Amino acid sequence: MLDESGLDLLFQKARTPRRWLAKPVETSTLQRLYDFVSLGPTSGNCSPARFVFITGSEGREKLRPALSAGNVNRVMGAPVIAIVAHDPLFFEYLSRLCPNEELRSWFAADVGLAEETAFRNGTLQGAYMIMAARALGLDALPISGFDQATVEEAFLADTGWRANFLLCLGYGETESLPPRAPRLAFEEACRLL
């Protein structure tokens, strides 16, 4: 079990930044981040998430037109912007990822099932990325205010991947954040049956 400092890092004291420090994120950190994300469980080890890490100014400028106005400054200032996507054809890797099961045919025969599985498990892997980023000392800002079609055309057209959300990564300026927003109580959000 994690001690209180580990729980603070991941949950209790972790905050979502609004501004970023001018401190780069090394490629080796992004590689280690993915290594941790890849270890999180997915249905049948399907691992449908795909990630595009935008670190340079050219990529940022390609992304800018896709951002909603309220997100431009928060996103463009991040050292890394990850496009969290999923591969609708994830099942082509199942013979390697889940070799003891014949799962490929299930998804190849049912486009709706394949898309639902890819989206659900890709989203799960995106959440793993937030937690892995925090564990590595990075801050994370998930963004859904963007035009999906523009992102897919600019960054994913040659892959067939589908964009889910953006995840800004880096070292946040957290000193001037307002108090944490309220959360629902256990009794409001949970049922015991």
UniProtKB/TrEMBL annotation:
Domain called Nitroreductase: residue spans: 15-171
Pfam families for the chain: Nitroreductase
GO molecular function annotation: oxidoreductase activity
InterPro entries: Nitroreductase, Nitroreductase-like, Nitroreductase_HadB/RutE
Highest taxon, organism lineage: Bacteria
PANTHER family to which the protein is assigned, alphabetical: MALONIC SEMIALDEHYDE REDUCTASE RUTE-RELATED (PTHR43543:SF1)
Listed name of the protein: NADH dehydrogenase/NAD(P)H nitroreductase
